[in-house]
Amino acid sequence: MGKSILVIDDETMILDAIKIIFEDMGYSVQTTPDPVQGTEVAIAQDFDLILTDIRMPARNGAEITEAVRAKKPNARILVITAYPNDPLAERAIKAGAVGLLKKPFEIAKILDFLA
Amino acid sequence: MTEHGKRSILVIDDTPEDIAILNEELKDDYRVQAATDHETAMQILRSTPPDLILLDVMMPGMDGYQLCRELKAESSTSHIPVIFVTAKDAAENEAAGFSLGCVDYITKPVNPALVKARVKTHIELKLAREYLEKQNAVLRENALLREEVEHIHKHDLKNPLMVILNIPDLLIRQPNITADQKQYLKMIEDAGRKMLEMINRSIDIYKMENGTYDLHPTCVNAIAVARQIVLAHTHAAAVKNVAIELSLNGKPADAADALNVTAEELLLYSMLSNLVRNAVEACPPDGRVLLSFSSGKAGIIAIHNAGAIPEKIRGRFFEKFATADKQGGTGLGAYSARLIARTLGGTISFLSAEQEGTTITVGLPLAREGGAP
After folding, report:
1. How much is the ipTM here?
2. What was the pLDDT predicted at B2?
3. CA end-to-end span of chain A, whole Å?
């Protein structure tokens, strides 16, 4: 079975794009535009990689990283942001995120974090 | 009108009788305060600043002109209109008062109707001015807010761009894709990249305007950058049969020539590219655009073409949205060129006349010997 990915982003077009590209490569992809629900799923299930946007209403990517890593210290979380020099992205890295991708990025770059 | 809603007037006069006369005329319509000496006047001005001051010029122990000068020099009172009340009616005295910033004169003995009329006029003027100032502040605030929102939208545009830039690649790798289809997909991707460049440039401009641009200068050969720009404008120049030439210290520049300046290569490219594009567009057909490089205290790049900048925009050439109704012109070319020149710690200026054409001169800090900035 292929590796599994969870993507959390309030922009559904980002979810759709990552989903079709990674399913095309044989990955299993779950997506949600709801950051609160995304946090629950990330804690309840195991993923090889969790991708989360930083700037979202209701809950930001740094808070998600902190909440998930508090429950699952080995969770691999990759944060994505449209803003360069985003202090929330730095906070997510401090909370243990494995990396940061700045939009728009080549979706294949996510592979670097799945090795 | 309630006592509280009334506009207030401060009468400064050493003669209680004169104060009483003015009070009688004004008390129905205004809240009248009075001071017979400098100290009391200052106290009232501090505690309950009036909307208008009626100031006696001739007072023993207090010079009305001097007091007016003080009021105008102090920021908390400079906006309060002052009307001089004086027995003197010589023209030169009036001129002296106006030069100090008073708005009107009333001569003693006062004519009641005249006092009322003048006070009313000047209070209304003050209210109108305050209203305009308030509106101005609101407009400025709205403009800032709009810029802020636009800035956020620019970042939001990166989301759809993610799709536009990534999906063509996925399609290209599908079986049964024809060469034509591949080319179309490449066109979509290129258009997306172009759009991303525009977004990033406009985000950079916003940061440079704010002074939050994070500059990382290195040593850049300005002539090499210019050669890339010439290549990129070959087509636009060829259409008008315009030649683009480079020179260094007065001689034609050859491939080995360098003018090393301290800059960010992308910013320098963007600035020179704007200026060269403008020069090619403004240059008369069959003409020449000359980029002359020279080094002195700074690295100088002068871009000349024979076309003159239309007179009506010369005065605001470097301002935002200054455009001579150019087809497709955004009016940001020269503006962003100046912004970039300043961000790079350089200078930019222009000379333009019908006979001589237009020369834009950019000065940039020279890179120190050895290449390191």
Report:
1. 0.83
2. 44
3. 15
State pLDDT tens for residues B240-283.
999 999 999 999 998 889 999 999 999 999 999 999 999 999 99
Which among A83, A85, A104 has the least Cβ separation from residue B162? A104
Contact B158 A103 (CB under 8 A): yes
Instruction: Please tell me the predicted confidence (pLDDT) of residue B330.
Output: 53
Residue A6 has pLDDT above 70, yes or no: yes
Asked whether the predicted pLDDT for residue B372 surpasses 60, the reply is no
Interface probe with A: pick from B153, B155, B159, most Cβ of A within 10 Å: B159
Residues of A in contact with B163 (CB under 8 A): 13-14, 16-17
Give the helix ranges, DSSP H, for chain B. 16-26, 38-47, 64-73, 91-99, 112-156, 158-172, 179-210, 222-232, 234-239, 265-282, 311-314, 333-343
Q: What is the mean pLDDT of residues B151-156?
A: 86
pLDDT band at A110 (very low <50, low <70, confident <90, very high): very high
pLDDT at residue B4 tops 80: no
Is B162's CB within 8 Å of A21's CB? no
pLDDT in tens, B22-42: 999 899 999 999 999 888 999
Q: Chain A within 8 Å of B191 (Cβ-Cβ)?
A: no
And the tokens for B122?
Answer: 């000047």
Mean pLDDT, residues A44-59: 95
Taking the CA atoms of B95, B97, B103 and B106 in sequence, report the sign of the dihedral they define.
negative
Q: Which helix (H) or strand (E) is B331 found in, with range?
A: none
Distances (CA, A) of A64 to A21, A97, B268: 24, 10, 40
| Superfamily of the domain at B218-364 | Histidine kinase-like ATPase, C-terminal domain (3.30.565.10)
Residues 6+ apart with CB under 8 A from B263: B217, B218, B220, B222, B344, B346, B364, B365
Contact, B250 vs B297, CB < 8 A? Answer: no
Q: Tokens representing A80?
A: 């994505």
Residue in B303, B236, B317, B300 with CA at minimum distance from that of residue B275? B303
* Total Cβ atoms within 10 A of residue A60: 22
What are the residue boundaries of the structural domains of chain B, listed by start?
7-133, 157-210, 218-364
Place domain B7-133 in its CATH homologous superfamily.
Response regulator (3.40.50.2300)
What are the structural domain ranges in chain A? 1-75
Which residue type does B80 have? I
**CB contact at 8 A, B172 and B185:** yes
Report pLDDT digits (tens) over B83-117: 998 876 656 677 778 888 889 988 888 888 889 99
- The fold of A1-75 is Rossmann fold (3.40.50)
Q: Are A95 and A62 in contact (CB under 8 A)?
A: yes
